[in-house]
Give the backbone structure.
Amino acid sequence: MKILLIEDNAELMQNILRYLSNEGIRCETAQTLYEAEDKLLGYAYDCILLDLMLPDGNGLTILQVINNLNPRPNVLIISAKDSLDDKLEGLDLGADDYLPKPFHLAELLARVKALYRRSKLGGKDELNFNEITIEHQNLLVTIYEKPVELTKKEFDLLVFFITNKNRVLGKQAIAQHLWGDYTDDLANFDFVYQHIKNLRKKICAAGGRDYLTTVYGIGYKFDENAL
């Protein structure tokens, strides 16, 4: 899971970043609306954590940008502005949930996971695709009910492919999803090929079908109709 935290309080931002990172969640940050919009237009996220009181304006103004994204990320508003009007306006503009400050980080994590389950996994902790079963809580992958040992990157890559099955994903999009926006400084994305090669090898070795196809000059696709 990849999150963008839009929050100008440096101490809270670091606390959330540290907590989510320890839970295995990739989290990037923005402290202004300008910085947030720049990242939203350049990178894909599963969830946005949105503060309303930002130095350059009301966080609600960024919701229009978020609503136009495809795929659209979930939005969890986190703000000290906890009046009923603020909450209703945020939900009316497209936010998925609202968590007033102060809050426990464990509750924040629970809300984020609930949104992810609802939007990506059909409300379940388990993701099933033909012979492949993914248990998010345990970071466990099984093929025909037999465990397959994957690295964390391979696990995230498999989830990314299955939740975007039949869509062509470019190397840059895959790299940004797995490693974040620092990939802008890389000369190439050859390492993406190596991770995909390893994932394909492990799936096939466990008896699974080879769903990963190369779209030459563009990227890769997890094709559910692969033979």
In short: The domain at 126-222 is CATH 1.10.10.10 (Arc Repressor Mutant, subunit A). Residues 105-120 form the longest helix (16 residues). The mean pLDDT is 85. The chain is about 40% helix and 25% strand.
